[in-house]
Amino acid sequence: MKKLIAGIPTEIKEMSRYRAGKSIEEVKEEYGLKKIVKLASNENPLGPSIQVIDVIQSEAKNVCLYPDSDSRELKTALADKYQLAENKIFLGNGSDEILDLLMTLILNPGDEVIQADPAFIKYELAVKSRGGSSVKVPLAEDYRHDLQAMEAEINDNTKAIFICNPNNPTGTMLDREEIENFLERVSDEILIIIDQAYQEYITASAPFDGIELLDKYSNLMLMRTFSKAYGLAGMRIGYALADPELIDYLNRIRGPFNVNRLAQKAAVAALESESHLKTCQDLNNREKQFLYNQFAELGLEYIETESNFMMVNTEMPAVEVFKKLQQRGVIIRPGHQFGMENWIRVTVGNRADNEFFIRNLKKVLAERDE
Question: What's the pTM value of the predicted model, to 2 decimals?
Answer without folding.
Answer: 0.95
